[in-house]
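Supplementary Methods, section 5.1.

A reviewer requested that the exact input to the structure prediction be made available. We therefore reproduce it here, unchanged from the version used in the analyses.
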Amino acid sequence: MGDFLHHYISGAKIEGTSGQTGMVFNPATGEVSAEAPYATAAEVNYAVESATAAFTGWSQTSASARSQVMFRFRELVISNMDVLAEIVSREHGKTLA
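The structure derived from this sequence is encoded token-by-token as follows.
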């Protein structure tokens, strides 16, 4: 079996507590590439509450500061292009080329 995935809420990996998971398949090979936990209602509520709280601060952040965050994100995407391409390739069943 492949990787075991986690929820990512409020800047942290969160272990799913539902006890239920779903298989993630590589569409090119049909092989299981990962296992993803299903969220409980409490985990979904926590994610929504965290996002709502983050939005309040983010929306009050100046455009200049927000653009700096987005440019940093852009730089991270560019510097990790090979890794991201491999992930997308695996998720979509496409060749890496």
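The CA atoms of residues 9 and 17 lie 14 Å apart. These observations are discussed further in the main text.
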